[in-house]
Amino acid sequence: MKQSKKGMILWLLVVLTLLAGALWVGSAGRAESVQEAMRDAVLHDLNRISLFGLKEVNPGLISAFLVTAVLLLAAVLLRVLVIPRFRYVPGRLQLVLEEAVGLFDQMAKTSSPHRNGFVGAYIFAAGTFIFVSTLFELLGLQGITVHGGPVTLPAPLSDVNAAIALGTLSYLVILSGGIAANGVKGVGKTLKEFSLPISMSFRLFGALLSGLLVTELVYYYVSLSFVLPVVVGVLFTLLHALIQTYVLTMLVSMYYGEVSEPAEGKKRAKKASPQK
């Protein structure tokens, strides 16, 4: 007991010493102001990375390539090594996979009862990408800019280009459901929601960017860079990963179900409804 108390006291003294030193040093020695750091976190116009020496790109693009490669590799390994070994009584990994697939499959069937095979697969893929790519920033992987300095690779969807691409792709998936179910009429039904890709894109971008800016601001000041960034970063990242995954997949499945509903089904429903 005495040794454990001595160890705790020693550890507390070390932490207090480091904290006092951080408060004394402050934020001196920064090469850029907080305004420049926040601006570059949004626009990525300073800390750019060379893509195989061909072009200077945003760090978010490198993050997107890494996340995509990891997800594709994981999918191949699961298909080759795990799925053939599935059993009637599931193990832990099998149970997790079945629950994840069942969650998105049930969401697709509930929101789109007429056509749900493709949309179920799409929202599973999109939801997995959003969740994993949002958690990616917790790894703190470093890249080298074209100026030779280090930069932390951000979440891919904190780049507005990635958010717009995912929002536009989701809108095209919704459009395909309308065309498959109702032909030209389905195009008209989908085009009525012309603001949908914009709202989905900027909802993703705004939510993830807000967490990035708050974390960047906390990390910028040395006096705040003990304990607090861990709490802020983890909480913001986990909340955004869960909320944005749910919101986008729910919106896609809901709108897909609306535009893919056959016109004959609506007419029959109106006839079957009691007259007032």
Which features would summarize this protein structure in a list?
mainly alpha, 276 residues, globular
What would your notes on this structure say?
This protein is mainly alpha-helical and 276 residues long. It has one domain (34-261). 71% of the residues lie in helices and 4% in strands. The protein has helices at residues 2-25, 34-43, 59-82, 92-111, 117-135, 160-182, 184-191, 196-220, 228-259, 263-272, and strands spanning 49-51, 55-57, 142-144, 150-152. The strands form 2 sheets. The chain has a two-stranded antiparallel sheet. The protein has a two-stranded antiparallel sheet with strand order 3-4. Helix 2 packs antiparallel against helix 8 (196-220), helix 5 packs antiparallel against helix 9 (228-259) and helix 6 runs antiparallel to helix 7 (184-191). The longest helix has 32 residues, at 228-259. It is globular, with a radius of gyration of 24 Å. The N and C termini lie far apart (80 Å). The model is unreliable at 25-30 (pLDDT under 50).
